[in-house]
Request: fold
Amino acid sequence: MLLAQWGSGGAGPSQFTGPVYLAVDDAGAVFVSVEGNNRVQVFQLAPPVSAAAATPQTAQLTSQPSAAATTAVTMESLESLWQSSGAPGAELYAAGSVAIDPDGNIWVFDGGGNRFQIFSPDGEYLESWDGTGGGGEAFNSENEEGGFEGDVAFDTQGHIYVVESGARRVQAFAADRKLITSWGSFGTGDGQFTAPLGLALDGAGNVYVSDETRDDIQVFSPDGTFIRRFGAHGSGEGQLSGAGYLTVDSAGTVWVADKGNHRVVAFSSDGAFQSSWGGAGGGPGQFRTPIDVATDAAGHLYVADLDNGAIQVFDSSGQVVAMWEVGSTPSGKLNLPYAVAVDGNGALYVAGVGLDHNSESNLQKFQLPPLG
Reply:
């Protein structure tokens, strides 16, 4: 018996051109990937569909707004300046973090190659680096779950800090890529990791590392001395479930993508909980696996909302000011944002992946519009 139906051909809301995959979560949200429209649409069934429906009907679709979204925001497109699949003959696979070095070049983690691919601001491929050549060990990003995770950050002196999920360590390099020090091992003690994912630096050069299975943040001095830890597994204030990438803004606020709780969490630099916003859903201010965060000089927070296929932007009070789709992969398939970075010249860099979060990896540069 047909219980419900919706949709028609087209590019508008609730319309499809070539729907290819569908999934339903425990809360009744329906995810439809639409290859022809290069997007994912998310629907909420209300009231629950049951066998009591005697005749076919059009399902009622509702959106549950987040507390962060009190103004109307619609999904828009950005101006793409360039897009790359990676080095000639060595394309990106399982693209991860994106960072901008002191020279303005863009580093994107190539998980499948256990290396960083480096591009000029104009999109020219420059080189790849796997951690060797200066006394460092080759990067090892593959974790026990089969994922590929690594992150990089640069201090004001050009020092390079890299975290590797597979090796469960941090390596620190001078600007010439000679190894300075390294630390970390498998475990749950101070200075140990089980699945380190994100790395960020504060203004004093202290190193913050998120761990997606410990669900905590550890803080180290630039030489690797353990300072403190904060966060714990759960869904309450100051807790995390699948800690994602993180960033530290100019005021010292630590922003963490809380993947499993579908929210963003803010801590002070000493680890005190400050705020959180989000919740599972497909509307403005809601997330489906937020995985990366970045900030700009004006205090805007950019969130890579992976499974909603969007970049969402918030002001310092948590209000949504923009929501953007990130186009298609170079082969024309759906592009999901895995990592995000913002430069000082009004450009947004996004590492995109396909529906399996590994293939169709690419790096794309967008021109940012004025933000409120």
Remarks:
- DSSP finds no helices and 32 strands in the chain.
- Residues 209 and 345 are 27 Å apart (CA to CA).
- The chain has a mean pLDDT of 87.
- The two ends are 49 Å apart (CA to CA).
